[in-house]
Design brief:
The chain has twelve helices and twelve strands. The chain has about 450 residues and is α+β, with helices and mostly antiparallel strands.
Length: about 450
């Protein structure tokens, strides 16, 4: 009986080993693979106190149900373990984390049993190698062709969310980096041109909608540049300050600029007086997020910003639709813009949860939709001018028609009055003649 119980205990103890068997991730030439739960095991380290030796010897690595690894704790550190085989012709395999708020990203491996532990960090510039420092967080993993290594990744972030880790061949990495640099450069060029163009229109027309729209464009461009990792190249090298303060501040500023632009463009205080308190609620939520950033509650701040952004998109879409059906035609393009924003958010959430494919298009969909949004909002502003111009023209035509009608009525009254005066005069003349005859 004791032997049977011992066998059962051993089976239960080792069942996790069979449950968490992972495949070797083989990377070939001109190929990029996403690190999914098919390949990695995960170990949470919320206190960030585990050393690499403790991690290597740990038996607490486990599989996860989600397709991609993710952060579940505030200020958390996550360890990922996977086996990587280099089937390319080069001795390095770039590993990247794109479009995410990452505080630190480190790679460890052991060359041979009993040898020292190799540590590579994304914080170290790669200027002395064939790789130049790119905008994305990446590490150049040195693995000889046809070699296999067990890789340990240490990733730290103050924001909760998924961790999209890509394993690239060298050729694919360079092509992807060039494409993203061109994409972001083109996007920044568009935002700069749109900001200057609308600033000139504000100086000419003195319509506050344009200055609020300029602030919206600036914050939109900054948020995309910072979130894609360009902040360490252009703004500040300290990644903790960038992720914990600058990025959430910019995202809160983006929310405030959107609310100011929408309120001025849609004339909410004049048209929707009874529902304006719901609009002020969005200001309050963004203010709470701002206070959380200042207080150092980064995870709560990011969650609050994401929640408020979703509520704002739904609210503005509903408000734009209501105003359109009330006869405010310029809200049509405004409604299209926020409908597109809401769809983009849903696609991003579905991508993060593994419900749709995680590829170049879904990664960059926010940039694509942002460009379309800028065009739609610019059309909406132009349509607003045409709308008020048409209203002014219609008012002038109505005034002219009223003036002509008044002139016609006055002319008719004058003719009628003149006829009555002539008739009265003739009557007086006749009466005078009869009196004259009577006197004679």
């Amino acid at each position: 009986m004791k032997k049977i119980l011992l066998i059962i205990c051993l089976l239960i103890q080792n069942s996790s080993l069979f449950a968490f068997q992972t495949d070797t991730l083989s990377i070939h030439e001109d190929e990029t693979k996403l690190l999914t739960n098919k390949y990695f095991l995960e170990l949470e380290d919320p206190s960030a106190t585990r050393t690499i030796k403790e991690v290597i010897s740990s038996s607490r690595f486990h599989g996860v149900s989600s397709t991609l690894p993710s952060f579940k704790y505030s200020k958390s550190t996550t360890w990922l373990k996977f086996v990587l085989k280099n089937k390319t012709t080069r001795a390095f395999v770039p590993i990247t984390i794109a479009n995410n708020v990452i505080d630190s990203f480190d790679l460890y491996f052991v060359d041979h049993p009993g040898s020292s532990i190799i540590h590579l960090s994304s914080a170290v510039p790669y200027r002395d190698t064939k790789l130049i420092k790119q905008n994305n967080t990446f590490i150049n993993a040195i693995i000889f062709p046809d070699s296999t290594r067990t890789i340990y990744l240490r990733i730290t972030s103050g924001a909760s969310g998924i961790i999209p880790v890509d394993i690239n061949s060298a050729n694919t990495f360079f092509k992807t980096a060039d494409f993203e640099n061109i994409l972001v450069g083109g996007f920044m060029g568009i935002t700069l041109v749109m900001a200057l163009y609308n600033l000139v229109l504000f100086l000419i027309l003195r319509d506050r909608s344009y200055i609020y729209y300029v602030s919206y464009i600036i914050f939109l461009g900054l948020s995309q540049v910072l979130q894609r990792g360009y902040g360490t190249n252009f703004f500040i090298s300290e990644r903790g300050i960038l992720n914990n303060y600058l990025i959430p501040f910019v995202r809160v500023g983006f929310g405030f600029s959107v609310l100011l632009f929408a309120a001025e463009f849609l004339q909410l205080k004049r048209i929707l007086k009874s529902y304006i308190f719901l609009y002020y609620l969005l200001y309050a939520l963004y203010t709470i997020a701002l206070v959380a950033v200042i207080a150092g509650e980064v995870t709560f701040a990011y969650d609050m910003i994401s929640l408020t952004s979703g509520l704002m998109a739904i609210s503005l879409l509903a408000i734009g639709s209501a105003l359109y059906f009330k006869g405010f035609k310029p809200s049509k393009f405004f409604m299209y813009g926020w409908g597109l924003f809401l769809i983009t958010m849903l696609i991003s959430i579905a991508r993060n949860r593994g419900l749709i494919v995680h590829n170049s298009f879904t990664i960059n969909i926010i940039i694509y939709s942002s460009v379309v949004q800028l065009v739609l909002f610019s059309i909406a502003l132009a349509d607003k001018i045409n709308f008020y111009r048409r209203q002014n023209t219609e008012a002038q035509l109505l005034s002219l028609a009223i003036a002509k009608e008044n002139e016609r009525l006055i002319t008719e009254q004058n003719i009628l009055l003149e006829t009555e005066v002539n008739a009265r005069t003739q009557q007086l003349i006749n009466t005078n003649q009869d009196l004259s005859k009577m006197i004679e």
